[in-house]
Amino acid sequence: MDRSLTWFDWKGPRAGRRAALVLTAVGLVALAASVLLPALELGTNALKLCLQISVAVTAVTLFVSALFIHRMIEDRRQIAESEQRFRRAMEDSAIGVAIVGLDGRIIQANAAFADMLGYDRAEIETLTFFQITHPEDLQIGRETMMSLKEGMIHSFHFEKRYLRKDGTPVWAQLAGSVIRDEDTGKPLYLVSQIEDIDARKQAETRIAEAETRWNFALTSAGQGVWSFDLRKGGTTYSGTWVKMLGYAEGELDGDPDRWLTMIHPDDRERVAEADRAHLAGETPFFEAEFRMRHKDSHWIWILDRGKAIERDAEGRLIRAIGSLTDITQSKEAEARLIVSAAMLADEKERLKVTLQSIGDAVICTDAANRVTFMNPVAEKLTGVAADGALGKVLGHVYWAVDEETGQRIGLTRPSAGDRHHSDQNSRAVLIRRDDTRCSIRQMVSSIINDRNEFCGLVIVFQDFTDARALQRQLAYAAAHDALTGLANRSSFIRAMEEMVDLCRLNGGEHQFMFVDLDHFKAVNDTGGHAAGDALLKRVADAIRDVLGQDDIVARLGGDEFAVILKSAAPARGADAARSIIDAIRNLNFSWDGRPHAIGASIGLAPIRSDSGEADEIIARADAACYAAKAAGRGCVSAAPEGQAGDLIKTAPLAAAS
Questions:
Q1: Are residues 505 and 605 in the same domain?
Q2: Does the annotation count 466 as an active-site position?
């Protein structure tokens, strides 16, 4: 490193030099006096005194000079060590570091900074920061440099764009400070840290663009969004919608019942009933058309769609979400179309259905099942542009199958006399031409003219992928234990009841196991619940691994597990139980370096047509498990043969080896 860029100002030698000069001067004065005094004939004593003083001062001067030289050597050593530490920190830094002159010249840069811009170090140290800065951001660096020179700031922190060697821009975050002369305060150079934040900036740009497109889509479609959340104090409305009603953003938020008071009196009872029916769980979603009062008192037509998405344990509404669409224009068009001539009847019906479905994906066909219309949402969901779809057979654009059966959902014309034919399917899957899929909810309606002639179909569909995934997640959570992923108690009881019914209907026999862990409480007491939870997961995996794919395993609660053995003959039930005991005993579980040994006791009970109800079978297996524990734990006990009401008198089977 250039000695002019030393981080530390060496003060000790300066002070030592000043002291040495003073003492030397005193010595010289004393020596001169010893020479001149004899000439002045001041006597022997005066001469002797002057000589003594000069000798003493000279000795002190030599001593101080020696100290000064030693201090200078030590300070130089410390400066060299400090410079080496700084050099090492700069070279090894993962973030770009540069030393910059006051003219913007890059005096020194580390490899990280050079790599970030695609240069080698020799190349970048021939450039100035102004040469590698994006033209639109040059003013940022100039203003900072002026403020530093004028002493207005001592450090800086800002974001700007640089240009890589290939000319592509890259966003960076700069932080640094000015190094000044300690005596004069004059700025010497700058030390900057430069961090690559290009990925973050690009992500922020994409998010902003997506939000802009979403808001623009809502505004263009005349739609708003409402959200009810009991925890947050009521209902909120999107800014798009409140503006359409003439209110300021947030002015309608709060009271969840206020919207009902704004509905036209002639529509209010009908809408309130639809709302009540959905809240009571009688309808899968809420949908209603009504007139709502604008702030300036005129009426606008609304299409309101919504759905409850969260309820409490008593079924009371916690959260709901929906959309509001201004359909005033469509309603006015509908009124005009009623009085239109018969020659426009076909187009009237098509426009009516299309306008009522605005905001959803819409495809229209003619009587020959050829595509006559696609809206932008349909283009997006199908992946087919309208220009390439018009005139093609519907199957070329839209192919829907049943989610459960995989069979194609046929779209056919209605039977004779069925003027208002429509089909709705909420479990359809749209298969695109590139074989990608998305879950949809579709409504297929027929277009019938005033001569009762079939004119085509209108298919209205929505992307239902997220909602259906949520349904699956909720269904899985309702049937599985959150900790182990095994079936939970309620779903296992249902499986037991189904197994009992099958045995009564078809005969046959299966085995039920009640598994209770031995010495599990000690793990919880010493390792805490975290250790207990980790061990329960291991136990669940161990049980699952030794059983067949058809066997049903559940966690009933705490350290109790249950198994319906379907994959083996009934006589193999004891062997399977012993395999479970061996697997649990050999887990080799440790927590915080401390090993824990547990075991299991198992009670067996048959599932047959004469075994009684599911809860009776479970009770007999539970009692047999209790007997296994009483017999010394780590073994299997079988419930006695007999009817459901027999007393449990059981002896343990041979302990697992």
A1: yes
A2: no
